[in-house]
Structures are given as C-alpha cells and as structure tokens.
Write a structure and sequence with these properties.
Blueprint: H1 23-31, H2 37-42, H3 60-67
Length: 76
Amino acid sequence: MSVAEPGEPARRRRHRRVVALSEVDRRRLAAGEIDDPVEALHDRDAEPHAADEPGTAEGANDARLLRDVPPHWGRR
C-alpha cells in the first residue's frame, strides 16, 4: 500500500465482487442451458410475494395497527 504525499488525496483500493459458478452451473453453461453466467445467479430467485406489498386495512385491528406505527418505523 502506498502512502499519499502531503496535500494529495489518499488512494482507495478498488474492491471487486467475486462470484464463482458451481460445477452444476458450469455444466449448464457449457451445455447451452444458460447463455450468460449471470443467469445462473438469478434463475432461481423467488418471485415477489403478495405479502411483501403494503397491505390495506381490512379489519378494525388492522387499521389500528397501521395507524399506530412507532415513529422510528416511518409512515407507509
């Protein structure tokens, strides 16, 4: 690591994210099942679930819970 001269900004090291493909994904790539290694990273991602969406208050208790949110949670 080099030391910066006085008056010069310190250089920051670049970090590179390393992703290794599994043996199975390497075989899939070689067989043409997937076109790009990035596909192997995301092809089994879960679809967004409806429960993750902000809900609507259906009952009296739901409305109270949505209304009485602690201040540090922020409002939806």
